[in-house]
Amino acid sequence: MFQGASSLSLDAKGRLSVPTRHRDALAAGAAGPLTITKHPDGCLMVFPRPAWEDFSARIAQLPMQAQWWKRIFLGNAMDVDMDGTGRVLVSPELRAAAGLVKDVVLLGMGTHLELWDKATYEARETAAMQAPMPDVLKDFSF
């Protein structure tokens, strides 16, 4: 299970150093490469192999009306390996799609991670916190 937020920087080659807490979880639960793909909110999703297999199978079952979403999720997916020092190369295409240049936020989302441009994430989080709570959370007990 992935949780927590980490402020990180991409290096000049577009590599991300995965924090140790996530690296350990990825090594324990992932047999094979990680998969990175686009998210409709403008970030990237990073999946360990088992979670990607579950997610991609669900996406593949979507009806023809969702063909473009299949293309967005499956067609843009890229497998990457973590190197010996815990770095992952984010492709130029995916970096451009999410507006990632240098400062990023890696956010644990349970079964996967989200990778955001830091300024975009902070602006979206601020807007969400200032907006009215969604109806689905109104009866939720904290």
- Architecture per CATH nomenclature, i.e. the level-2 architecture: 3-Layer(aba) Sandwich
CATH class: Alpha Beta
Structural class: alpha+beta
At the fourth level of CATH, the homologous superfamily is: Transcriptional regulator MraZ domain
Distance from first to last alpha carbon: 21 Å
Ranges with pLDDT <50 over ≥5 residues?
A: none
- What percent of residues adopt helix (DSSP H or I)? 25-40%
Major sheet strand order: 1-7-8-4-3-5
Indicate the proportion of strand residues: 15-25%
Number of strand segments: 8
Query: What does the largest sheet look like?
Result: 6 strands, antiparallel
What is the CATH topology classification name?
Chemotaxis protein chec
**What is the string of SSEs from the N terminus onward?**
EEHEEHHEEHEEH
- Rg estimate, integer Å: 16 Å
By DSSP (H or I, 4+ residues per run), the number of helices equals 5
What is the average per-residue confidence, as pLDDT, rounded to a whole number? 92
Number of domains: 1
Q: What is the global morphology? A: globular
Describe it for me?
The protein has 142 residues and is an alpha+beta fold. It contains five helices and eight strands, in the order ββαββααββαββα. The strands form two sheets. It has a six-stranded antiparallel β-sheet.
Task: Summarize the entry for a quick read.
It contains 5 helices and 8 strands. With 142 residues, the protein is α+β, with helices and mostly antiparallel strands.
